[in-house]
Every structure is written in C-alpha cells, then in structure tokens.
Write a structure and sequence with these properties.
The complex is a heterodimer of chains A (about 260) and B (about 260). Chain A has about 260 residues and is an alpha/beta fold. Chain A is built from nine helices and ten strands. Chain B is built from eleven helices and no strands. The chains are: A alpha/beta (about 260), B mainly alpha (about 260).
Amino acid sequence: MTQIGQTAQMRLEGVSLSYGAKLVLSDINLDIARGEIVSVVGPSGCGKTTSLRVLAGLVSPSGGRIVYEGTPLSGPRRDIAIVFQDYGKALLPWRTAYQNISLALETMGTDKSERPDRIHALLKLIGLGNHADKFPSQMSGGMQQRLQIARALAQEPSVLLMDEPFGALDAMTRQTLQDELLTLSTKTGATIYFVTHDLEEAVYLSDRVVGLLPNPGRVGRIFDVNLPRPRDQLTTRESPEFLHLRHELYQFVKGAEQ
Amino acid sequence: MTAPAGPTRPFDWRPLAVPLALITAWELAMVLGPATTSETLAAPHAVLVGFFTIVADGTLLTATAQTLGAALGGLAAAVAIGLVLGLVLGLSALIDMLLEVSIEAIRPVPSIALVPLAMMIYGFGYRMEMSIIAFTAMWPVMILTRTAIRDLEPRLLEVAKALRMSFSDKVMKIMLPAIAPRVFVALRLAAGVALVVAITVEIASNPQGLGAAMILAQQTFHPELTLAILIWIGLLGYGINHALLYLQRRLFAFGTGSEVSHDAR
C-alpha cells in the first residue's frame, strides 16, 4: 500500500510520547515519501499537533524514533520548516514583511548581498510583492499566513510541516491558499505534512490522509487519495471519488469520537 | 511652553479654565486681602517676576542643568543595571531563586535612607546623588524586564528554536525587540522616579540643583522664588513625561491597534 524502504524520506518508527503518566502518542509507524502531501486528521486530543512537533524536532519522542533521510532526527533542522496556525504570534510584530523573511536568511547565514533578491522573489511568489514594507499588524490574516509560509520557504525546506495553517482564515481565503499551496508543492517539490481538522481540505490537498484515534493518539486508518492532479476547487470537490473519501473520513472521525 | 502634544490635534483650552480661575483668585486675594506682605506666600505676579529674575541671572538654568544631569546619569545607570539584572533573573530560574531574598531585602530601603552612606562614600556632588538615583530607579526596570522575559510569547521562542538560532541571535533578534515596548514603559517610570529622588536628595543634603535652590530661597525668605522653582519642577516633570510618551508612540508604532490608531489620529 505505501512505499517502504529507500523511497521514504521521513519515517516514524514506533514513535510514542508521554507527558508524565499520560500517553499522548502510542506506537506510531508511518513512512512519508519525498514530495508527498500527507494530511493528518482526527478528533481533538488525538495528538495531531503533537505528532507534528515530534517531526519538527521540537519534542523528543519517549519511545521509538524519527528517521529523516536515513539518519535519526535529534532536534530541529533548517530544512524542515514549520508553519504555525497562529501566524499572529509566530511573526515578529516589530519587523516588516521583508524583515520577517530576512530573519530566516540571517539565521541561515545567507550572504547579505543575496538576501534582497531572494526576499523579493519570495514575496512575489507568495503574492505579497507590494507589501514588503508592511508590518504584520497592517496585514490581513491571509496575508500574515502567506508571510509565514514565505518565511518557511526561505529556509529552502525539503519538508514543510503545517499545523492547521488555514484554520483561522475565512472560507474564500482558505481555498485560495490551498491552491497556492498545491502550486508551491509542485514548484518546490517539498514534502508536506499537513495537520487539519477540515476533512475536505485534507482530501483536497493530499496524496494520503492519516486518520488518528485518541487516548492515546495512534494511527487508526490511512486513506489513499487517488484524485487526479492538478486539482480544482469545483471539479475535484464535486467528483464522486472526492465525495466518497469525504464520507469515509467523516465516518472515521465520527466513530473515533465515541 | 507646553509639552509637545499631538502635532495635528487642535489644542483644547478648556482644561486650563480651572487653574486659571484659581490663579486669578489667588492673585486677587493677595493683592486685595489683608496679608499684602507675607513671608510664606507670594502673589502670582511676584512669582512670575521671581521666575524671570532667576532665569535672567542664570541661577535657574544652572540648577536645572545640575538636577537633570544627575537624574539622567543616575537613570542611565539604573536602566543599564536594571536591564541586565532583569534579563538574567528572567532567563534563569535558578539565579532568580538564589537572589530573591537578597533583592527583596535591599529593595524596600527608602532612597533617602541611603544619603548618609552615599555621603560617606562619595561626599557631596553628582556621584553621591547619582548613586542614590540609580539605586532607586533600577527596581522598576529590573522587575518589568524580568516579567517581560517571563511573558515572552512561547511561539516566538519556538520560531527561534526551529530556525536553530544561536543564543546571542535569540537575545538580540527575538528577546530584546520583543520586550522593548515594556522596557520603555519601565524607562518612563524610572525617569519619574529619578527626578523625584534627585530633588529629594538635593533638598535633604546635596548643595546643588533645583532642590538646593528651593531650600536656599526658603531660608532667605523668598517665598516667590521657592514657588517659582516648585512650579518649574512641575513643568519639567510634565514635559519629560510627555516627551517620553511621544517617543514611545513613535518607536513602537508597529504595535497592534492602539499605538497605530493613536498616531493616525
């Protein structure tokens, strides 16, 4: 069903995590292929975000390990970038859009002379070309989240970890950003690990959807999404296959809640 | 004469009605009343004349320079020490725990009680005054810096962690800018404290500055000069606070909501 072996770029091997006596993640096994888009869904408290934090190297698993490009992951890496849900908190409010992206390049030691071109290219790529000098507080939620994505892309990541990135945005903005994300994924070839509570979003974006079960968080079922690409907000969402998957996912999550 | 108010806002004169009425009543009472000569009170016009006298002969300027110089020097030391201490205490729970008792024992000492000790060490002059100002004004800076570090947005620290920032980058690019608005509030508090302590020390012992000038005027039976200096000190404090408020709005205009809209008015 899933590709195993050399094709796996990232691999969770029996990952478990406990906070004190509470087991949050239990024996999670998952192979993620290079360039794949994997979404994670499940009822609240099933450890979606926690699994992302483990993959980010922000939390070390209590048991098992993460293997990244053949070697065990020991902490955060610059080629694994994170996009948080709360863009308002993750951006530096005292820096302009330009300067927020610059933060990533400064930290990575990118040559000073290269930075302006790179930053302007990223701003343009993400649709913020005319907003370089705006502070986050002067931007809409959608623009702020775009900016955070641009900052993540400045790291030239092989893997993009996204924690409910569009959860706080209105429906129209969310759909626009979903399509932009798909375009970015084709352009950059980055692997995307996408946590969401929006089942349709999960199906629309992904190659595979991982359904987690709660108490403790564990893999319940993995759904393969064989919808053709490029995807389209209307035709894809209206296709029988899409509706069928949505139905299955809905029943899975509903069942998991009980 | 008035402090730099909002540049575009039309000036509202109404709040001045009450003080003007009181001053007029005071003037009338002094001129028409029985006590036309007094050793404790002076009429507003006499205060005004006294004010211009000490402006003209340079006394006021010298005294003001001495007081502000001491206050500024002490304030600079207070901010430097308070900021470093606050950073260390905010970052290290261990050091905070180790120093807690010592700090809480020293902090409540009234500034004026340090005058004899400071005088023994430094004698009269700037250094004695500045050391007492620094001691008193550093606490608000230290406490607000420590709290600001503790309250840092955890998400920002995660961003730093995910980017694998070096410790110095984390301090310079994340922590210090993030706490800057609150440290500036501490600076404003400390500036107020510095002026109060400067004048207190001058009144109590140090023979220089506005405080000493007031004592001299009082001892030589010049109530009009005492009052003129008193009003001048009030205006200075008002001016400094408003200048700092203005600066605060300028520096932190990126902040969410209030400051930006404030500026836009």
